[in-house]
Amino acid sequence: MSAAVQPAAVAQRAHRGTIHLEDGVVLRHTALEARQHVLRIGAPLTAAHATPGSFVHLRCNPRLNMRRPLSIMRAAPEAGWIEVLFKVVGAGTAALAECRVGESLSLLGPIGQGFSLQPDRPRVLALGGGVGIPPMVFLAERLRADARAAWKPLVLMGSEIPFPFHARPSRILVPAAPAAAIACMPLLDEWGVPSRLASNAGYAGCFHGHVTELAARWLDALSPAERTEVALYACGPTPMLAATARLARQHALPCQVSLEEYMACAVGGCAGCAVEVHSGAGRAMQRVCVDGPVFEAQSVFPAPAC
């Protein structure tokens, strides 16, 4: 290898040595409505290095060769556990739903580039849609311990199936939110982090519409000075992320999105999860697993050409 290409090659392998293979232990299994499940897994190495936006690659069953990528929803480095949320959609997640407390789960983690916080933009607007909710919970958890700024987070969640928690009216006032939107995620309320819910399914206390529409209503109610403090973070289905990118362009806000893609190896070897990314240098293909899953929104969802 020549000296001219070595730095670039090293940069491409920057993730090596940061992903750990460990045998996790199921500490808690919570089954929820709509075939949703939360697993708390004892995984000290992953818990110690996880960041909001990173994920794990789980072997769901010894009989299934392919692992499944799941976003990390919470991480407790001192206690050595992580939590993941998933919905049963196929053989892998169906097998994972059968896990019992005490069982062992092989996992690779933490994988991927997470969200980068901007202390000069303390109004964190975090949008989570469906199974894109977990990274937003993790982001809120980490903000509580980050002393670099007086963070003012707001977590907005959208779902067309029952939320993976028992929603209740929030005890935290959000002045710029629609008055009828009062439902929240209780855990975030307990942390002192305001949250609001959106759905087209007619759930009590939820904003009727998409989570990006709720975000637009909140942003429109802010003063110009308040909007200069806002940064957007989002994870969810591709149409939702594209709408979030448009919203960020409309208000000239920095925005990071966490992509959801099918993966085989999840460690950068197969490039099966590559997506097109736009930059000042042109277009390039990057791997969602290790180059992402978090990207600048406008690099993945650029403004349409005139």
Summarize the structure.
The chain is α/β, with parallel strands linked by helices and 306 residues long. Helices cover 23% and strands 31% of the residues.
What does it look like?
With 306 residues, this protein is α/β, with parallel strands linked by helices. The chain has 2 domains: 12-111, Elongation Factor Tu (Ef-tu), domain 3 (Beta Barrel); 123-254, Rossmann fold. The protein is 23% helix and 31% strand. It has helices at 6-12, 44-49, 91-96, 133-143, 186-191, 211-221, 224-227, 238-251, 297-300, and strands at residues 20-32, 36-42, 55-58, 68-76, 81-87, 104-111, 123-129, 154-158, 168-169, 183-184, 195-199, 207-208, 230-235, 255-258, 274-279, 282-287, 294-296. The protein has a 7-stranded mixed beta sheet with strand order 12-11-8-7-13-14-17, with helices on both faces. The protein has a 6-stranded antiparallel β-barrel with strand order 1-2-5-4-3-6. A hairpin with a 2-residue loop joins strand 15 and strand 16 (282-287). Helix 6 runs parallel beside helix 8 (238-251). The longest helix has 14 residues, at 238-251. The termini are far apart. Residues 1-12 have low confidence and may be disordered.
